[in-house]
Amino acid sequence: MGQFEIVRTVADLRAQVAQYRRSGASVGLVPTMGALHDGHLTLVRSAKLDNARVIATIFVNPKQFGPTEDLSRYPRDEAADVAMLKEVGADLLFAPDLGEMYPEGFSTSVSVGGISQHLEGASRLQFFNGVATVVSKLLLQAVPDRAYFGEKDFQQLQVVRRMVRDLNIPVTIVAVPTIREADGLAMSSRNRYLSPAQRKMASALPQIMHDTVTELRGGSVAAPIIANAKGRLHKAGFDRVDYLELCDEATLQPIPAARASSRLFVAAYVGATRLIDNWQVI
Ligand code: AMP
After folding, report:
1. Rounded to whole angstroms, how far apart are CA atoms 146 and 58?
2. Which atom of ligand 1 lies closest to the CA of 149?
3. Which of 135, 159, 171 is nearest to 249 (CA)?
4. DSSP secondary structure string, 239-280?
5. Which of 89, 127, 180, 247 pairs with 153 at a CA distance of 20 to 30 A?
6. How far is residue 231's CA from residue 240's CA, in Å, rounded to a whole number?
7. Last residue of a domain, one of 107, 141, 176
């Protein structure tokens, strides 16, 4: 195994990947926005199981933040991230700056129709165009054998899969299950925004998701079960629920009752912090 390296330009990334290829190594890619936690590290660990070399990327992508979102205060701590990546045995960090990813005159946007329009797409209009644009760039910059995405962002995973199929990008997309805290809260870089009191409150979310999924499993009509769950979220102190919906996993469209391949999706605010999660129903 070579030394851990950090590269900041596409040219250096490609040179490093070419070197891996010359030695016959397979390459796994783990795209992130940094502020790493055990969810991200699990992606790296999965990538290490399948590939001889693992590249993590850190880029806080402005194109996937709306004008009122948290781009300027999004947590950044590259030194801590690097220490964690070394610890789990990543080989390379690609951490480009804004000008390297979107040089002067950059004017292309990748837009995935259908599955990107509901849920996160309805709440955050430009979000998936930003995600699809940056992920297509990262995949074409590194051209890995496999790229790893968390089920935590299930709709994003499906959008990336669709895009890779539609654009014939020669990479296998690997899904990794959601990593949770002891109380069930999905790990997220945004959990850092929560005060201790808010963090305590947030544990109602996995509890309510668990109960709701259990109720939905029988195949009963979803609407009253979901209305009840929304009431519980508000009572627990969630200020706003963007959505709490039962959807088909493939189409990401709402369905009236649970069936094979359904998932419960939620986006809700604790104070100013927006938390998302999804639980498989059947
Ligand atoms: P982010 O840095 O939030 O853009 O996330 C980078 C990648 O890590 C995405 O593929 C996420 O789905 C994944 N990820 C984030 N949190 C988790 C988690 N708790 N469990 C599994 N994967 C996660």
Report:
1. 17
2. 10
3. 159
4. -EEEEEEEEETTT--B-SB--TTEEEEEEEEETTEEEEEEEE
5. 89
6. 11
7. 176
Based on the fold, state whether residues 206 and 144 are members of the same structural domain: no
Task: Answer whether 32 contacts ligand 1 (Cβ < 6 A).
Answer: yes
263 token code pair: 């998932």
- 64 CA distance to ligand 1 middle (Å): 15
SS3 10: helix
Exposed, middle or buried: residue 260 (CB in 10 Å: 0-12, 13-18, 19+)?
exposed
Map residue 26 onto helix, strand or coil. Answer: coil
The residue behind tokens 């629920």 is 241
CA of 52 to the centre of ligand 1 (A): 22
Express each pLDDT in 162-187 by its tens digit.
999 999 999 999 999 999 999 999 99
Assigned domain for 282 exists: no
Q: How far apart, in whole angstroms, are the C-alpha atoms of residue 145 and residue 21?
A: 11
236: CATH: 3.30.1300.10
**What range defines the domain where residue 267 resides?**
189-277
| Shared domain check, 145 and 113 | yes
Number of domains composing the chain: 2
- How confident is the model over 239-250, as pLDDT tens digits? 999 999 999 999
* Interval 17-73: pLDDT, tens: 999 999 999 999 999 999 999 999 999 999 999 999 999 999 999 999 999 999 999
Which tokens go with 198?
A: 């808010």
Active site (catalytic) residues = 40
What's the CATH code of the domain at 21? 3.40.50.620
* Mean pLDDT, residues 221-234 taken together: 98
For tokens 């029988």, the residue is: 218
The ligand 1 atom at the shortest distance from the C-alpha of residue 186 is 19
Stretch (H or E) spanning 148: strand 146-150
